[in-house]
Amino acid sequence: MKELLEAIVKPLVQYPDEVNVTLTDREDSVLLELRVNPSDMGKVIGRQGRIAKAIRTVMRAASGRDGKKVIVDIVED
């Protein structure tokens, strides 16, 4: 899951080396915290949150087999 999120986000941002994904496995869900360079936040979120919503949709579809809910949290430092 972590690798998939990185593969989706890195081509979108100007500083791909600063993409950091933290995975926290819970009992019924998986939390993925995404951190990017502050100047790349707009590129990851998109207009009216469209790109962020699309990223979450893809991650949810990819996790369908696992039976766990995937939560993608875009964290601003």
Fold and architecture overview:
With 77 residues, this protein is an alpha+beta fold. It has one domain (2-75): K homology (KH) domain (GMP Synthetase, Chain A, domain 3), CATH 3.30.300. 34% of the residues lie in helices and 26% in strands. The protein contains three helices and three strands, in the order αββααβ. The chain has helices at residues 2-9, 41-45, 50-62, and strands spanning 20-25, 29-35, 69-75. Strands 1-2-3 form a three-stranded mixed sheet, with helices on one face. A hairpin with a 3-residue loop joins strand 1 and strand 2. The longest helix is centred in the C-terminal third of the chain and has 13 residues, at 50-62. It is globular and about 35 Å long. The two termini are 22 Å apart.
Shape: globular
CATH class: Alpha Beta
Strand percentage: 25-35%
Q: What would you give as the CATH superfamily?
A: K homology (KH) domain
Please name the defining characteristics of this protein.
26% strand; GMP Synthetase, Chain A, domain 3; alpha+beta; 77 residues
List the topology elements.
Layout: H1 2-9, E1 20-25, E2 29-35, H2 41-45, H3 50-62, E3 69-75
Parallel strand pairs: 2-3
Antiparallel strand pairs: 1-2
